[in-house]
Specification:
The chain is α+β, with helices and mostly antiparallel strands. The chain has two domains: about 5-105 and about 275-290; about 125-270, 3-Layer(aba) Sandwich (Aminopeptidase), CATH 3.40.630.30. About 30% of the residues lie in helices and about 25% in strands. It contains nine helices and eleven strands. An eleven-stranded mixed sheet has the order 1-2-3-4-11-5-10-9-8-7-6, with helices on both faces. The radius of gyration is 19 Å and the shape is globular.
């Protein structure tokens, strides 16, 4: 399978993979392996050309072990992306084996399509890029914000994984391909980082494709318009300062945040899907007992 065949959401992931991963094209899949960050699930994965059948479970478990886990014992998860739009497929044998089926809406914003949101319901709001070169203080604040909700993953390992991700983002920042933005609220000693997100582009020149990274808002600051203000600010930066041809956003179709993105002008054009089995240490009780 060739990288050139990948659908837009999977393809734009390779902006990060280009500086951190080892990528191999195989006849049946694309292999992504990130030795420096072995617990990064979607940096240590197989991207399949076609949907895997229930009768292929053992085959793909073996292939994942051959390509990734055998040489990286710390990669105790299994992550398989599917390079065809989701069409309602169910995989009972996979789910019985502990896999989660994830389906994401792939959204796009084109120049001229951005809609201004209502102002935030919070006084003293500042949206700006974080400093990658301030000795790490702002980066640590971002990492701690992201660890406020680990989505069920083990906290220490999750924090280590996010810190290693920012090593890759810093390299992309040096190339002019990454900015990370934060929303600060309050003043003086009461000033806190309430939301953050990243923005990548596949090349540092006009006409590139932009791609959002991990939009997050601290649980204590949700539903106050901060996410809308952040995404609008970052989208405007991509369109005006970077002059991108399009921005790609991947979102959970069942999460409230997708309504925010639609309200800002993003439009869904397909759904991507994947199968993921968490490492034993990352499995919440509800998954571990299944």
């Amino acid at each position: 399978m060739k990288l050139s065949q990948l659908r837009p959401a999977w393809r734009t992931d390779f902006t990060v993979h280009a500086v951190a991963a080892e990528v191999t094209e195989r006849a049946d899949c694309v292999v992504v392996r990130t030795p420096g960050n072995p617990t990064y699930y979607w940096g240590n994965c197989l991207l399949l050309e076609a949907p895997p059948g229930d009768d292929e479970l053992a085959h793909w478990l073996r292939r994942f072990d051959e390509e990734i886990a055998a040489s990286q014992p710390a990669s105790q998860h299994v992550a398989l992306g599917v390079n065809t739009p989701y069409a309602g497929e169910k995989r009972p044998a996979w789910e019985a084996a502990g896999f989660e089926l994830h389906v994401n809406a792939v959204m796009r914003l084109l120049p001229g399509g951005l809609v201004a949101p209502p102002p935030p319901k919070v006084a003293e709001v500042e949206v700006r890029p974080i400093a990658f070169d301030d000795g790490g203080a702002e980066l640590e604040a971002v990492i701690e914000l992201q660890c406020a909700d680990t989505h069920g993953f083990e906290l220490a390992g999750y924090r280590r994984y996010r810190r290693r991700m920012f090593e890759a983002y810093a390299r992309l920042h040096e190339r002019g391909q990454c900015e990370w933005f934060g929303v600060w609220v309050g003043t003086g000693c009461g000033r806190v980082l309430a939301a953050d997100c990243g923005l990548l582009r596949d090349r540092a020149e006009p006409g590139a494709t932009g791609r959002f990274q991990r939009v997050s808002t601290h649980p204590a600051w949700r539903r106050r318009g901060l996410c809308s203000a952040l995404v609008q600010h970052v989208s405007r930066h991509a369109l005006q300062s970077w002059q991108v041809a399009e921005i790609i956003m991947v979102a959970d179709p069942d999460d409230v945040a997708i309504g925010i993105y639609r309200g800002l002008g993003y439009r869904e054009f397909e759904r991507e899907w994947c199968l993921e089995r968490r490492a034993p240490v990352d499995r919440p009780a509800s998954i571990a007992a299944a």
